[in-house]
Amino acid sequence: MSTDSQNGEVLFERVSAARSALADQLAFLRQDRLALGGAVVIASFVLLGLFGPLLAPHDPIKYDVTTASGEVMRLAAPNAQAFLGTTAYGKDVFSQFLAGARPTLIVGLLGGLLTGFLGFLVGLVSGYYGGWVDEILMRFTDLTFSLPFMPMALLLLTFITPNIWVITFVIAAFLWKMPARVVRSEVLSVRERTFVKSARASGASDLRTMSLHVAPNVLPIGFLYTAYGIAWAITAQASLAFLGFGDPTMTSWGRMLRMVFDSGNIRIAWWWVLPPALGIAAVTTSVFLVGRAYEEVINPEIQTDQ
Question: How far, in Å, are 67, 115, 201, 216 from residue 180 at the CA level?
Fold first, then answer.
């Protein structure tokens, strides 16, 4: 058999395995209607983040919506020319909503992944080694718990020019503590199991034991809190942007809320407030709904009657 044929078979097997895994996940989500609805919202959000700026009918910053006579439409309710109305500055709300999904997705996804990775790594090392290593890492974790996120983030961003990457790092630097605590508690239980002790007795190094025997058994809880981290990061990014510490070069949902607040029309221009507010609420709620469904599988003690 030729090498090309073998490679083709391997590729076909991998694609089939991926399709089977996807089908299994969809079948699982269908058992929980709330989780399925959440998955649909998350998928829509990802598509908006990837293609939203391309689908926006106008430039969210430079383009001014005008009437037939050439007058700028300021604070206009939804109409034929502006599907979701206009801002106090004559900008198209619909275009800003579509463009604002991308920064929200970037910070949420990268912030959540970095939060989950740091928390998983700290919890794994701390729980596995114990002793002075656990003491140092957990005291450092306690220190981060004692530092309130928002005041510290605002303090840091006062001295650093905010951009999407700095904001992502600041968010992850303060949110990793929760996954670390949970993963550590799981590792403390797993490391006492027979197969881990057998690996040590056979001469396996600590790194090999952690990587091949302990880590795979706590990965589900790590993935779960990574998903939660995405929701936390989206909320944190929106909060920072609303307070005026978002990336000034990009339109995000939090920045849209900041702009409507600054204009003094937050109680009047509902068409300007609702799209970003509902977008943030829908995505974060959906992440928690999907996460809750998987958490019931990981921890049967919290299962609810379906």
Answer: 55, 9, 27, 16
Q: Within the chain, how many helices (H) and strands (E) appear?
A: 12, 0
In-domain check, residue 25: no
Question: Cα separation of 177 and 179, whole Å?
Answer: 6
Radius of gyration for the alpha carbons in the chain, expressed in angstroms and rounded:
23
| Number of structural domains the chain divides into | 1
The CATH number for 107's domain is 1.10.3720.10
**CA–CA separation, 197 and 203 (whole Å):** 10
Domain hosting residue 160, numbered range: 52-302
- What pLDDT is stored for residue 212 in this prediction? 82
Q: Is residue 119 part of a domain?
A: yes
Residues of the chain with pLDDT under 70: 1-29, 296-306
Q: Please indicate, yes or no, if residue 33 is contained in any of the structural domains.
A: no
Domain presence at residue 26: no
| Per-residue pLDDT at 20 | 63
pLDDT in tens, 186-231: 888 888 888 888 877 887 787 888 888 888 888 888 888 888 888 8
